[in-house]
Amino acid sequence: MRSNVTSSSTQERPTSPWHEKLGPGVITGAADDDPSGIATYSQAGAAFGYNILWTIPLTYPLMVAIQIISARIGRVSGHGLATNIRHHYPVSLLYGAVVLLLVANTINIAADLTAMGAAVNLVVGGPTRVYTVGLALFSLVLQVFVPYKSYVKVLKWLTLALFAYVGVVFAVKIPWMTVAARTAIPHPIWSSAYLTTIVAVFGTTISPYLFFWQASQEVEDLEAAAGQHALKKAPWLALRNLRRIGSDTWIGMGFSNLIAFFIILTTAATLHAHNVTDIQTSAQAATALKPIAGQFAFLLFSLGIIGTGLLALPVLAGSAAYAIAGAFRWKNSLELEPRLAKRFYGIIVLATVVGLALGFTSIDPIKALFWSAVINGVTSVPIMVLVMKMAAHPGVMGEFTIAGSVRIVGWLATGVMGVAVAAMLVLLTV
């Protein structure tokens, strides 16, 4: 996937080790498999077994395309998505996108914190609510008081927690020939429940908060690195940066989709195979695994929930803060001290505290979670249209407007999401 790059950029030479080029894409991809995503994938695998696996290879290139485009908008323009929308589109579109993002992210934070507290309880026992509050405070301290350069290293290491879901597979028996067949050839079930689950899987895989986060992280990296400038103003820096964005995103999203595949595979091979078809939480999935797959699988699944939650919380709260700050022209950077960006950090604190509070109300955060994934799928469509329009806008991208395969696959991703949402709505109204 390539876009227009001027010949002056060919003077660049890559100088950094490969692992230093990995950053926003890897973190974004790993954050996609948060406890709420784990619950959605677990429910999909438990309810429909191997018949949902085909969605993962389908969503991979679509997810890569839209995330590459989002990242390029940030690196080329030097601004996040919200700021670019504010500059080039009606303010009503901006406020609508930001409000939807904040609501969906806050619900996700509530579900993630609840799942993390429950996972600690499963492993060590004790008061779940105390663990939930402690994890929320711990995450807030990291986000608010640890500088971005240091914090991003912590986030990179937390991505390793996702390997827990690869390890679980080695503790259970897998019919690999069936898995290969169901992955390569869809076996759809024409029901509203099946299509709603597909939209939920798409919505938790291709989510608006990931677009906003990766674009903003490219801006953070741009401002944190000496000698770097927005590519629109410094086209000679384009070749290395666009290649890095490509490799970073392909690897990050590949990592994300691989883990999603293993979560669905694990729950299909264990829970669905033993007629456990209604899993509402990631912690419930871990508990259900214990008598079927053993203590090792149970521990890996539980510890993975905690690690991925710590990775996802800053992405959820941070993407909402970037969007709102961009909409209202506030200072926004995780590298800034809290006193210099009070309103930006205030949104991070507010989203986390409200999410924490939701977990202590009578609202069922897990039902809200599943439907928030569906809502993410529905709201992704107009936001993806906006992202695609911005990426082709010379005012946003200068000479680096998207072209060729990246543009085709980006619009294909938007179309697939639109068709899935439309099919779900039709069946729900029949």
UniProtKB/TrEMBL annotation:
InterPro entries: NRAMP_fam. It comes from the Bacteria. One of its GO terms (molecular function) is symporter activity. The keyword Transmembrane helix applies. GO terms for cellular component: plasma membrane. It is found in: Membrane. Pfam families: Nramp. Residues 1-14 have a biased composition (Polar residues). GO terms for biological process: iron ion transmembrane transport. The chain crosses the membrane at residues 52-71, 92-110, 130-148, 155-177, 189-212, 250-272, 292-324, 344-363, 369-387, 408-428. It is a multi-pass membrane protein. This is Iron transporter. It comes from Paraburkholderia ginsengiterrae.
